[in-house]
Design a protein that fits this description.
The chain has 3 helices and 34 strands. With 462 residues, it is mainly β. It has a 6-stranded mixed β-sheet with strand order 26-27-28-34-33-30, with no helix packed on it. It is rod-shaped. The structure holds 2-acetamido-2-deoxy-beta-D-glucopyranose (2 copies). The site of one 2-acetamido-2-deoxy-beta-D-glucopyranose has 3 residues, from loops.
């Protein structure tokens, strides 16, 4: 192809502005001068306003065509007077123009750069309108500029073939800025309720944790984590954007926020139960010692086995209840020379000589007290059953009080009080003979009777 182009053509960029046209030159070696002039002018023309971005719609050599909405090549051979000097001829080219010697033959080999200049087809005049070409039957068919690379759409643009022409458009989600299609940052338009991620040509909404995209893919709706396997061990409460674990009564939430651990209520206080606190999962209960039953929730109450019938006393026995148990005693506790006169009373008949120095009667009584009572404590009152005018009664503890745990306080001539003097701890049992000595000085009469009191001390303070 050596002879095709006689001289190496200079490819001349179009002048950046019309003002520079007088200096435009397209001779070999003029590029350096161009650069120099550009520098010079730039420095010497500070008043030259920098063109705003919106004016640089198209790159050099193209101009904005409002009708077709894309950049159209400028035919510098027409717009620039004396684009080529001397004997050179001007050949328009996409984005610029060529100055060639008039003798140079032009071969249509510029397809890679864009559509050939119309003049180049002079040898085969096209009888069809622009954008059409004849087929074998000499009828005009549309040229598909898009597939034949005869378009000037930017790589960022989509080329659409039209009858007789073509159109460069921006893909969805792109907008034309200058000559290029630029991705629209949809996130600037607040399409998303929570977060927006811009994507080439589109966008995606995201939601904060605890939310999920609504049916419109933009709003965020609360996720009910409780319905979706939230890891709460016992109770789950959904709330806006999150959830809370709670525990049943008697449990407390572990530090992890999910699991529940049993509360040891018994460790909180020693007063929860009168006797013994037993921790159980989620609760506690009070237990009572044997012989007692729970009264309400925390108190222990002695079981009266004699009342409930839980005793095993025989027919000949009498059941005596005390704190924490019971005792079966012989109904007849009278021993010679005493004879029984009623359930609890034994008499020593005056006719019996053996009774001369003995108390004339012994009455059996039973009572029960709890451990560690505060002292002094009145525990039993003795009362003379028969009152004789002029008689004087004296009361004393005749036996059973070896350690001095009790004493008698006389109240008047006919009654006295048994007083517990020291705190005692059970289980323990006293048999106290409380003697009443009746004296009548006028009649020179002296009689003694005994109240045999059995005192059971329970093992507990209740
Ligand atoms: C939301 O996104 C899903 C998945 O990308 C899609 O199938 C659905 O059609 C979208 N819905 C709407 C209303 O855009
Ligand atoms: C108690 O005995 C005394 C002395 O014998 C006597 O003076 C007094 O009247 C008696 N009191 C009563 C209430 O019987």
């Amino acid at each position: 192809m050596g002879g095709a182009v006689a001289e190496t053509p200079d490819f001349c960029p179009p002048p950046p502005s019309l003002r520079m046209l007088p200096f435009a030159s397209c001779l070999p070696g003029s590029l350096l001068l161009w650069a120099f002039l550009l520098l010079l002018l730039g420095a010497a023309s500070p008043q030259d306003p920098e063109e705003p971005d919106s004016y640089t719609e198209c790159t050099d050599g193209y101009e904005w065509d409002a009708d077709s909405q894309h950049c159209r090549d400028v035919n510098e051979c027409l717009t620039i007077p004396e684009a080529c000097k001397g004997e050179m001829k001007c050949i328009n080219h996409y984005g610029g123009y060529l100055c060639l010697p008039r003798s140079a033959a032009v071969i249509n080999d510029l397809r890679g750069e864009g559509p050939p200049p119309p003049a180049a087809n002079a040898q085969h005049p096209n009888p069809c309108p622009q954008g059409y070409e004849p087929d074998e039957q000499e009828s005009c068919v549309d040229v598909d500029e898009c597939t034949q690379a005869l378009h000037d759409c930017r790589p960022s643009q989509d080329c659409h073939n039209l009858p007789g022409s073509y159109q460069c458009t921006c893909p969805d989600g792109y907008r034309k800025i200058g000559p290029e299609c630029v991705d629209i940052d949809e996130c600037r338009y607040r399409y998303c309720q929570h977060r927006c991620v811009n994507l080439p040509g589109s966008f995606r909404c995201q939601c904060e944790p605890g939310f999920q995209l609504g049916p419109n893919n933009r709003s965020c709706v609360d996720v009910n984590e409780c319905d979706m396997g939230a890891p709460c061990e016992q109770r789950c409460f959904n709330s806006y954007g999150t959830f809370l674990c709670r525990c049943n009564q008697g449990y407390e939430l572990h530090r992890d926020g999910f699991s529940c651990s049993d509360i040891d209520e018994c460790s909180y206080s020693s007063y929860l139960c009168q006797y013994r606190c037993v921790n159980e999962p989620g609760r506690f209960s009070c237990h009572c010692p044997q012989g007692y039953q729970l009264l309400a929730t925390r108190l222990c109450q002695d079981i009266d086995e004699c009342e409930t019938g839980a005793h095993q006393c025989s027919e000949a026995q009498t059941c005596v209840n005390f704190h924490g148990g019971y005792r079966c005693v012989d109904t007849n506790r009278c021993v010679e020379p005493y004879v029984q006169v009623s359930d609890n009373r034994c008499l020593c008949p005056a006719s019996n000589p053996l009774c001369r120095e003995q108390p004339s009667s012994i009455v059996h009584r039973y009572m029960s007290i709890t451990s560690e009572r505060s002292v002094p404590a009145d525990v039993f009152q003795i009362q003379a059953t028969s009152v004789y005018p002029g008689a004087y009664n004296a009361f004393q503890i005749r036996s059973g009080n070896t350690q001095g745990d009790f004493y008698i306080r006389q109240i008047n001539n006919v009654s006295a009080m048994l007083v517990l003097a020291r705190p005692v701890t059970g289980p323990r049992e006293y048999v106290l003979d409380l003697e009443m000595v009746t004296m009548n000085s006028l009649m020179s009469y002296r009689a003694s009777s005994v109240l045999r009191l059995t005192v059971f001390v329970g093992a507990y303070t209740f």
